[in-house]
C-alpha cells in the first residue's frame, strides 16, 4: 500500500519464441521441485525478509485463496535496461533516440508465445487466469495450486502485531519458460481486500489557515511575539502563487506550451475541474483551454475506506494546480488509480507508458523502503525503463519525514523515489521577497515550539522536529552511474562499501510554512460543500513543481522530450543553473510565526501560536554541494534554457 503525502496543509536476453510445453511442464511442476532445482529458475526477492523461522506460524491452509500477478520479463530485459540507460545519457550516441510505445513493446515486450507459455504453465498447476496484459498475467486459486506453480510452500508469519502469508522459500518458475517471468507479486500479502465497486466518499472536512499572514517572505513581522534567533520574525506567508514560484525558479517567458504532463494518484476528486478553474481565475493563472486538463480513470474504485480516498482529493488538487501555476500552457492528464495499492498504482503508471500519455510524470506518493519488496521493485523498474526508452521521465516526491527515524524508528529512504530509474524530488523552505525576488532557500526541516503561557517566550525553543524532506542512502539500490563523482562518498557508502543510491536528485519548495496556496471544495461544519483556499506543503508540492519546470525546459528544448532526466540533471551539477541550498543561508537562524485554528476551520475552538524554525531536517543536512535533503539544488535562472543546449 502506498500513502499520499499531501497531508502537510498546515504544516536477460530471450528468444523471440518459445517451444511448446510438453511432458512434466504441461502437466504442472510438482511443488517438490526446489527453487534451486535445475528445472526451475529462481524469482529473486519473492520471499520477504520478515518471513523468518522465528516468525513462522506454520503452513497456510491449502484451501486458502491466493490472488497474484506474474510479471513478464519480455524478450530482452537486459537490452531494455541498456537502451534505457544509453538513450538518457547526454554523452551517449543514442541520447534522445526514443522509441514509440509500439516500437518499445515490439522490441522489448513479451511475445505472444511467451504469454501463451506462461498461461499454460499457470493453468496446468490449477490456477485460474483472470486477466492478461502486455505486462503481466493475473491469476487466482488456492494455496495448493500456488505452491505447485511457484515451487514453494506458503506459511503464515507474524510481522509486528499482525499475521501475513508469505513463501517459505524463494518462488521459482519452470526453466523451460526460458526466463519469460520477471517476478510474481501477491504470494505474500496482507489479509484479503475488497474488490467490489465502491462509491467515492464526499470531500474531507474543511481546513483553513488562520492569519495574520505575510504576502511575501517578511512582509508582515510578528512584532508582538517573542524574538527568535535574536530578532523579530515574520508571519508565515498566506501561500505562494504561480507568479512567485515562476520567478523563483527562472521560468522566464516559457509556459510549457506543447508539453504533456501526467499526474498519478489514487482515486479522483469529483470537483477537480471546478476547483482548478476557480483557483486559476482567483490567483492570476491562465484560464484552462478546452481539453487542457484530462482525466484517465478506472471503471471501479476499491478499498476507499482503507485508503482514505477523500484524502487523495487534496493530493490531486495540489498536483494539478501546482503544475498549471508554474507551466500554465502545459497539457495535464490525471491518471487515477483504483486504490492506493501497488497493483493499481502500477496499472496507472503502465497506462501512461503504454499509451504515451505524457513525457513528464509527477507522482506524489510512496512508502518507506522497508515496505518495498524486490518483486515489486522489479515491476516498478520495468515500467520506468519502458518509459525511459520512450522519452518519459518519472518524478517522485522523496517523503515528508526526513530520515524516517521519528516516524519508523529506522533511518531509511522512501520508495519508489529510491529507484535508480526515477528523479527523486526533495524539499526546501523558500523565501520569495518583494517584487517576486528570490531571496534564499533552506533545506526543508521544521522544529516547532509553542508560545509560553505568559506570551513572553517560546517554550523549549526551538522545539521538536515535526517534518522535513525525505532523503538519505538506500539500503537496497546500487549507486547509479550518474551519481558517481557527484554524491559524496560518505553518503554513497553509508550502507554499502560498494556504494548505493542516494536520495534526492533535485528539489523545490516543500515547507508548508513557506508553502503554496491551493483551492479545493471541502466539507464545512454545517455539512455544506464549498470552495476554499489554504496553504499546503510537503514534497507532494515539490514533485509537481519540478515536473512543471521540466515542462518549461522541454519547451525550451524545442519540444524535444527530456526523458529520464537524471543523467542530464547531474551533468549540470555545480553550475549556475542551480541554487546551491544550505540550511542557514543568512547565518543567523531562520524562523516564522504561525497562528492556527485549533479545530482547523475557525476561531470557535481557539487559536494556537507557535514558532517554526527552518532548516532543521532530522539528522539530514543541506550543505554546500550535493546533499541528501536537496540533491544538486533547486532550478535557478538558466536551468530551463540549459536543456535546449544539448
UniProtKB/TrEMBL annotation:
PROSITE patterns on file: SEDOLISIN, SUBTILASE_SER
Cofactor(s) this protein requires: Ca(2+)
CDD domains: Peptidases_S53 (cd04056), Pro-peptidase_S53 (cd11377)
Signal sequence coordinates: 1-34
Taxonomic superkingdom: Bacteria
Alphabetized UniProt keyword annotations: Calcium, Hydrolase, Metal-binding, Protease, Serine protease, Signal, Zymogen
Peptidase S53 domain span: 239-646
GO biological process, alphabetically ordered: proteolysis
Record's keyword annotation contains Cytoplasm: no
GO MF, one annotated term: tripeptidyl-peptidase activity
Coiled-coil region: none
Pfam families per record: Peptidase_S8, Pro-kuma_activ
This protein's name: Serine protease
Amino acid at each position: 500500500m502506498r500513502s499520499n503525502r499531501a497531508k502537510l496543509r498546515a504544516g536477460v536476453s530471450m528468444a523471440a519464441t518459445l517451444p511448446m510445453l510438453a511432458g512434466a511442464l504441461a502437466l504442472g511442476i510438482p511443488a517438490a521441485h526446489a527453487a534451486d532445482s535445475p528445472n526451475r529458475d529462481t524469482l529473486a526477492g519473492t520471499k520477504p525478509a520478515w518471513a523468518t523461522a522465528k516468525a513462522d506460524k506454520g503452513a497456510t491452509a491449502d484451501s486458502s485463496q491466493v490472488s497474484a500477478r506474474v510479471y513478464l520479463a519480455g524478450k530482452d530485459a537486459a537490452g531494455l535496461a541498456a537502451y534505457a540507460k544509453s538513450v538518457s545519457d547526454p554523452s551517449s550516441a543514442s541520447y534522445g533516440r526514443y522509441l514509440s510505445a509500439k516500437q518499445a513493446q515490439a522490441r522489448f515486450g513479451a511475445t505472444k508465445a511467451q504469454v501463451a507459455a506462461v498461461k499454460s504453465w499457470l493453468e496446468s498447476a490449477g490456477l485460474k487466469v483472470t486477466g492478461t496484459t502486455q505486462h503481466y498475467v493475473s491469476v487466482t486459486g488456492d494455496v495448493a495450486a500456488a505452491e505447485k506453480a511457484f515451487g514453494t510452500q506458503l506459511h503464515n508469519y507474524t510481522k509486528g502485531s499482525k499475521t501475513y502469508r508469505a513463501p517459505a522459500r524463494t518462488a521459482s518458475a519452470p526453466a523451460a519458460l526460458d526466463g519469460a517471468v520477471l517476478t510474481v507479486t501477491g504470494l505474500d500479502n496482507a489479509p484479503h481486500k475488497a474488490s467490489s465497486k465502491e462509491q467515492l466518499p464526499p470531500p474531507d472536512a474543511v481546513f483553513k489557515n488562520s492569519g495574520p499572514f505575510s504576502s511575501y517572505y517578511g512582509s508582515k513581522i510578528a512584532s508582538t511575539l517573542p524574538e527568535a534567533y535574536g530578532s523579530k520574525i515574520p508571519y508565515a506567508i498566506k501561500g505562494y502563487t504561480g507568479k512567485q514560484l515562476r520567478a523563483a525558479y527562472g521560468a522566464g517567458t516559457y509556459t510549457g506550451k506543447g508539453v504533456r504532463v501526467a499526474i498519478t494518484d489514487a482515486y479522483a476528486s469529483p470537483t477537480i475541474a471546478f476547483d482548478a478553474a476557480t483557483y486559476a481565475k482567483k490567483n492570476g493563472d491562465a484560464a484552462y483551454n478546452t481539453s487542457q486538463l484530462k482525466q484517465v480513470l478506472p471503471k471501479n474504485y476499491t478499498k476507499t475506506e482503507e485508503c482514505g480516498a477523500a484524502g487523495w482529493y487534496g493530493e490531486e488538487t495540489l498536483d494539478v494546480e501546482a503544475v498549471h501555476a508554474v507551466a500554465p500552457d502545459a497539457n495535464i492528464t490525471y491518471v487515477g488509480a483504483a486504490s492506493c495499492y501497488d497493483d493499481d498504482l502500477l496499472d496507472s503508471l503502465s497506462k501512461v507508458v503504454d499509451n504515451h500519455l505524457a513525457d513528464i510524470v509527477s507522482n506524489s506518493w510512496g512508502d518507506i523502503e522497508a515496505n518495498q519488496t524486490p518483486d515489486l521493485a522489479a515491476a516498478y523498474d520495468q515500467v520506468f525503463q519502458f518509459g525511459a526508452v520512450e522519452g518519459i521521465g518519472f518524478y517522485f516526491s522523496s517523503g515528508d519525514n526526513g530520515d524516517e527515524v521519528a516516524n519508523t524508528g529506522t533511518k531509511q529512504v522512501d520508495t519508489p523515489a529510491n529507484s535508480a530509474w526515477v528523479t527523486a524530488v526533495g524539499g526546501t523552505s523558500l523565501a520569495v521577497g518583494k517584487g517576486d525576488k528570490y531571496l534564499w532557500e533552506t533545506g526543508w526541516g521544521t522544529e516547532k515550539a509553542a508560545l509560553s503561557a505568559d506570551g513572553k517566550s517560546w517554550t523549549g525553543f526551538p522545539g521538536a522536529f515535526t517534518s522535513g524532506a525525505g532523503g538519505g542512502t538506500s539500503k537496497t539500490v546500487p549507486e547509479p552511474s550518474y551519481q558517481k563523482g557527484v554524491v559524496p562518498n560518505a553518503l554513497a557508502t553509508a550502507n554499502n562499501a560498494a556504494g548505493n543510491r542516494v536520495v534526492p536528485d533535485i528539489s523545490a519548495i516543500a515547507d508548508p510554512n513557506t508553502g503554496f496556496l491551493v483551492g479545493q471544495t471541502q466539507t464545512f461544519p454545517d455539512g455544506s460543500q464549498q470552495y476554499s483556499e489554504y496553504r499546503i506543503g510537503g514534497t507532494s508540492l515539490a514533485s509537481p513543481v519540478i515536473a512543471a519546470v521540466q515542462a518549461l525546459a522541454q519547451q525550451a528544448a524545442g519540444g524535444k522530450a527530456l526523458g529520464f532526466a537524471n543523467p542530464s540533471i547531474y551533468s549540470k551539477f555545480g553550475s549556475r543553473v542551480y541554487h546551491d541550498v544550505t540550511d542557514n543561508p543568512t547565518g543567523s537562524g531562520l524562523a516564522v510565526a504561525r497562528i492556527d485554528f485549533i479545530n482547523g476551520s475557525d476561531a470557535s475552538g481557539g487559536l494556537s501560536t507557535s514558532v517554526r524554525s527552518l532548516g532543521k531536517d532530522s539528522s539530514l543536512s543541506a550543505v554546500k554541494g550535493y546533499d541528501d535533503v536537496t540533491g544538486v539544488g533547486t532550478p535557478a535562472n538558466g536551468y530551463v534554457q540549459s536543456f535546449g543546449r544539448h
